[in-house]
Design a protein that fits this description.
LexA/Signal_pep-like_sf, 193 residues, Lambda_DNA-bd_dom_sf, 434 Repressor (Amino-terminal Domain), Umud Fragment, subunit A, DNA-binding, alpha+beta, 25% helix, 6 helices, Peptidase_S24_S26A/B/C
Length: 193
């Protein structure tokens, strides 16, 4: 059995799928899947792309004989929109995920405004974790009307407030007037090429 075959089997087992179900997801026949796992067949580009896109497999790990991470499948976190964040946590539907290596977080949110420029831009993903906020933290907040905002926890006149970094957004609100959804751990910026 080749190293690739061993790693492929590990990926399939971690995904908790039978050979047949795994093959169907990849768009190959069960015989080809069996040959791949036994090392009797080499993967084609279609299989490699499927492993990356469908299962989040790190292809460098898969094709490199020396690489051995703890898990073949990269962790992913759900991406919620404002409507999902207005629901109780146990009722949120996981429809989209964001694959970010070496990041722990409860969920991600795509920013809709430019209140936190230059650090956070419209279209950026913020990775959020439920955490007790401290002064200076970037927080994901929910307004009374259901609007989701990114704001910084600050102190003004001995009062804790949520403020925007962008001076165009001069609204400063007392922290108790917003529901804090969590602390922002990381900002992920996407670029079109």
């Amino acid at each position: 059995m080749t190293v690739f075959a061993q790693k492929l089997k590990k990926v399939r087992e971690e995904s908790a799928l039978s050979q047949k179900a795994f093959a169907e997801k990849l768009g190959i026949g069960p015989v080809s899947m069996n040959r791949l796992e036994k090392g009797n067949q080499s993967p084609d580009v279609h299989v490699l792309v499927g492993l990356r896109t469908l299962f989040g497999v790190d292809l460098n790990w898969l094709l490199n004989d020396n690489a051995a991470p703890e898990s073949a499948i990269k962790p992913s976190i759900p991406v919620y929109d404002a409507s999902q964040l207005n629901l109780p946590e146990d009722q949120r539907q996981r429809s989209t995920v964001l694959d970010i290596p070496a990041v722990e977080g409860d969920y991600a949110y795509r920013v809709k405004d430019e209140a936190m420029l230059p650090q956070v831009r419209q279209g950026d993903f913020v990775v959020v974790q439920q955490h007790q906020p401290v002064l200076g933290d970037l927080l994901l907040c929910l307004t009374e009307t259901g609007l989701v905002q990114v704001r910084r926890l600050s102190r003004v006149n001995n009062q804790m407030v949520l403020a925007a970094d962008n001076p165009i957004y001069d609204q400063i609100v007392p922290a108790e007037n917003r529901t804090v959804l969590g602390k922002i751990l990381r900002v992920v910026r996407t670029f079109e090429v």
